[in-house]
Amino acid sequence: MALLLIVFAPAAAAFVLTLIPRAARLAITVPALTFLYLLIGAPDGMSINIPWVPSVGISISFFMDGLGLLFALLISGIGSLVLLYSSAYFDEPAEYSRFSRYTLLFMMAMLGIVLSANLLLVFIFWEITSITSYLLIGFKHEKEAARDGARRALIITSAGGLAMMAGFLLVGIAAGTFELPEILGSGDVLRESPLYLPILGLILLGAFSKSAQWPLHFWLPGAMEAPTPASTYLHSATMVKAGIFLLARLGSTLNGTDVWFYVVTGVGLITFLYGGVIAMRQTDLKAILAYSTVSWLGVLVALQGTGSEYAASALVIGILAHALYKGSLFLVAGSIDHATGTREIDKLGQLARKMPFTFAGAVIAGVSMAGIPPLLGFLAKELLKAASLYEGMSGILATLFPIAAVVGSALTAAVALRIVWDTFLGSKAADTPHEAHEAPFSMWIGPLVLGAGSIILPFLLAPTLDTLVSKAVSAIRQETASIHLHLFEGINTPLIMSTIAILAGLGIFLIRKPVIAWLQARREYNPVAVYQWLFYDALPNGAEWLTHRLQSGKLRFYMMIAIAAFIAMTGLTIYAGQINLLGADVLGALDWEIVIVCVLLMVGAWAGIAAPTRLGAIVVLGIEGALLSLLFALFGAPDLAFTQLMIEVITLVLFVLAFHFLPDAFTTPIRLSARVVDAIIAAGAGLAVTMLILAARSNRIGDSISHWFVDNSVPIGQGHNVVNVILVDFRGMDTQGEIVVLIIAAMGVTALLRLRPHDQPRGKYVAEDTNQGGGDGGDGGIDQQHS
Amino acid sequence: MFEVPVLADLNLGVTLPSVFLALYATVLLAVDIFIPSEHKIRTAWLALAGIVVSFVLNLMTYNTVDSAFFGMFTADPFSAFLNIISLVTAFISILLSVDYLKRAGIERGEFYPLILFTTTGIMFMGHANDLIVIFVGLELLSIPLYVMAALRYPDLKSEESGIKYFILGAFASAFFVYGSALIYGATGTTNLPEIFQSVSVITATEGNSSMMILLMGAGLAIVGLGFKVAAVPFHMWTPDVYEGAPTPVTAFMSVGAKIGGFAALLRILIVGLPMLVILDGQTTAAWQQTIALIAAATLIIGNLVAIAQTNIKRMLAYSSIAHAGYVLMAIAAAGTLGIGDKAAQSAVVYLMSYMFTNLGAFAVALAIEKNDGTGTNISDFVGLGKSKPALALMMTVFMLSLTGIPLTSGFIGKWMVFQATMESGLVGLAIVGVVTSVASAFYYVRIIVNMFLKDGEGDPAAGATQYVNWAVYVSFAGTVLLGIFPFLMLNLANPITLAVIAP
User: Fold this and answer.
1) Whole-angstrom Cα distance, residue A112 to residue A282?
2) In the Cβ-directed half-sphere of B348, how many Cα atoms lie within 13 Å?
């Protein structure tokens, strides 16, 4: 029950706010109480399971383990601070209320993701975060940039979410359940499943898009159009970590393979370095923070490549430390923007004296970010380096990981120094739209509380943090872990690496001006273009091309394809079955008359093809029919021959009547290549039918029933004309039915003829509307042979 | 030597829901003559009443398992389930037609009996236990549809639609009959359970030459029915016909014709030919690979080409092709011994969820269509979220359901199909299914984006009359209710058993 309450209380609060907008200031109590409850009162191993569709294995179930607890604490804790902060950030009460509503809904979705015990619930909450984040990014919807950024974020993250759902479905199929505890306890089932690679690819796609991994990171900077409290909450502390969470959640069942290691570590490290470099060249405070967030998200992904215990602890501390210092810095950026009216770092400077509390918060956060002891950020960087030296790795990444860790940390340190120094200290004074002033209490308290966390937590390792980390690591690795962290472990390799990184960072900071100028002069490789090309160019155009190839609108093409399929099917079956085509004496009954008629038929067929006019072709067809009747007569079926002849005559007359209104010659020129294809298909169809007949004749089962009719015609039917007896006696009911059908048809025809409007000229049909478009993609895809 | 059948032997009681509808339609055709042309709505009401009666009759006999017409016709939960789908389809289609036909100036009384005839044909295909009955059902289903497709006379597109559908449909029927003849030639019977018996004899005999004839027959029957369900490469007619036909007819045939085709495929392949294996002792039927291949091609082509469409009717046409692919996945799964019943259940559940969702999508498309048949472009949806928020919201749900998002009926259908496919061992096909269904979001979500995220004057949706609204509500309720409480349809589908012998 408690779990349901934790997840859905924010939604309830949002609902209340819709009814009573003025209650916005009270909204903070919901996440604050949740935070306190989780911190002190929450029992271990809570879970709830409400069956929903048992036959399909879907249920509404939640559970809390160390990993869920870690994230739930972050979500509710930072959520409280963000709500407090935004009460002063928004000047309009109505805006504040609206913002609180969205934020509370988002909070529910986030808590849902981290506490769900069913993969489908995870997916549903995941997509709700995409939608609420869309609302928050587009909060200032009158700005076009905000709308664009919101749309791009929505498309990328929800498309990633769909890929993830596909992955979940495959997980459900492979593991036979969607329940996370069962999946986590399933051992190697997923790794050994034939679906492993598709599962991995789809889930990584979902995680990487949400957590802004290179090359899917580009939506995150665009999302910085959101109000700063939203950026703090979504794009730094929580939502972008949903992908990290997903990897951590499912890592124990998927990791350990080479593919996992190379993809996860590789992409993570690229993102780490890429984000750090790009962050250096930005000038907008929030853009700097955005790219440095991208960079650190890369670390958090890379750390999951090995699945070692070191890496898991580094991950937990890394998540915590980053949430504290980056959340703080975002809030600081918001305060500066609020106070001065600009976020351009070039225009800022020497704000320390005017905004002392904000400055204090920024310094703590910056120091933690730079990885300077004894703050939490230092511990995170130490653990990162320790994890990068993990011996279980092999291949080139084993060498690159430590190097990347040092280089990336150096970049992070440089960026941290730049943010703090160039805005609050520095040599030049601020040149801002407004005169800077200290932010109100509710805005500076947030950074300070987070900063306090960064300072105090490293000294509370044994009593608090160790327990939390142990629980979380146990959940991540699915085996009981007991972690004891130490701030200083003596002089060892990680410490040396950290020192080098800090010094290098300082060095980069000192020569930052030429470095930034050099970076800005370089052209940025921009994946947005690829995204644009793929989704707005390649895919639609490719699909359109395919449409035009397949969907010409020409009936004859459609029939050609169908006939080709028929030929292929017949041919393949006869070939595969080694079917005997010349079994019984199929050619035994050939007389010379029959051969002559057959040759004539073939000649006629050729003449029909070669005929230059429609009328000519029709006449040849008629001759073919007559020859066919002759063939029937030669085989001793005069009645059949007669019927055939009658039908031929009627068809011929109808044909001539119908084609009377069409131009006599075939006007549409057909290219030679098309004619060759036509010829092949026509010949194939003839061949296929011939083979079918041969096959049927060669593999006859049962006896012919004609003898029975001949033998019984006189004794039972009292008639000597066998055909007559069959028609009126043996099959009398059939004949009766046929007569009825004919009469009904005749009545129908009469009625139709009488229906003809009197003002319409006899025998002429005038098309009223001959210019018609349609077809695929808007242009004429329709056989325009009406005339 | 001949026993003259007594009427009681025909066991007509079992056939009540479908035979009643056929007779009712015949009578309605005559009654319609006496209904003045400005009151043709009465014919529509009478047709609806007939559907309701047939529906109730069907529910009353839901759990009956019996046969009629000397074993040619069978009634079981499978046919009863399909009857529900076909009758609801007809019901919603008539709701859509009433005002549309008037707007388009093509209101004619015989339209409604035609719908009832087609519905009877669909129901017959579900009941069929004999190749002959399937063929009769197929023709009864098709011929009224040819007429209805060309109803918008003298609109050239509509005429083209009718003639194309007719020619290719006749082609398909010919394939089917040829296939049936070959199956008969190999087994000596057209009765499906007897075919089953005969096939096991044939497969047990080494080097039996009937085998190849049987294979050819099955192949041709699949081709013939492949046309009806619009499976690649027999799907070519679909977009042209769907675009040209009057929209309610398109809605009706996009669901109805498919139900009939799939019912026949399931009956033939699961009842008649489940043991059609090339070598004795194999556990997968010889047709499984063929169907799997067709299914994969259908999924890929249908979903890919749908992306390029700018006309909503054409887009929904390709989408319906793609959805046929998912049902074909289930049919392919049925080729593995022991999966037959589960596959059949998943197929019909899929059809039911598809029915509600697809009819709803067509209903919304119809609501924004103009009187002259224009206004069917995807760009016409821009701004609908502002001008008609409720309609746009329901369209969103339909699009999400077609994509297969959880909490909509589309998800349940897809999930059942995927599960059956995996259980049958067709891993590759399952992956194709999952990936393409995610890719399909690309064109479904575009409608949502157009409705809500693009700036523009919204369409007033003049076609959203009361009848159309009711059609949308019913479809919406079906989509959401079955998505949230799937047991409603799963319980109905559970008793379905098609396989003659349990494995």
Assistant:
1) 35
2) 31
Pick from B213, B244, B310: CB nearest A778: B310
The Cα B34–Cα A578 span in angstroms is 63
pLDDT given for residue A768 in this prediction: 46
User: What residues in B contact A756, CB-CB < 8 Å?
Assistant: none
Give the SS3 label for residue B108.
coil
Of B332, B401, B327, which Cα lies nearest the Cα of B82?
Answer: B327
The pLDDT of residue B85 is: 95
Whole-angstrom Cα distance, residue A429 to residue B55? Answer: 82
- pLDDT tens figures, A700-745: 666 677 788 888 888 888 888 887 888 888 888 889 999 999 999 8
Interchain pair B487, A165: CB under 8 A? no
B157 touches chain A (CB under 8 A): yes
Complex ipTM value: 0.80
DSSP string, A741-762: HHHHHHHHHHHHHHHS-TTSPT
CA dist A173 and B434 (Å) reads 11
Residue of chain B minimizing CA distance to A578: B212
Q: pTM (2 decimals)? A: 0.83
Q: What is the pLDDT of residues B250-273, one digit of tens each?
A: 999 999 999 999 999 999 999 888
Distance CA B141, CA B126 (A): 12
| Structure confidence at residue B22 (pLDDT) | 94
> Does B213 contact A695 at a Cβ distance shorter than 8 Å?
yes
| B157, B164, B185: residue with CB nearest A774 | B157
Query: In this predicted structure, which of A112-121, A505-514, B202-211 has the lowest mean pLDDT?
Result: B202-211
Element (H, E) at B453: none
Take residue B304 and report the two structure tokens written for it: 């890919």
Which A residues, 192 through 211, put their C-beta within 8 Å of a C-beta on chain B? 194-195, 198, 202
pLDDT at B359: 96
pLDDT score, position A785: 36
Give the list of residues 6+ apart from residue B75 with CB closer than 8 angstroms, or none.
B14, B15, B61, B64, B65, B66, B67, B68, B127
Please give the average per-residue pLDDT across B385-408, as a whole number.
89
How near does any CA of chain B get to the CA of A769, in Å?
7
Residue of B29, B156, B435 best to disrupt the A interface, most CBs of A under 10 A: B156
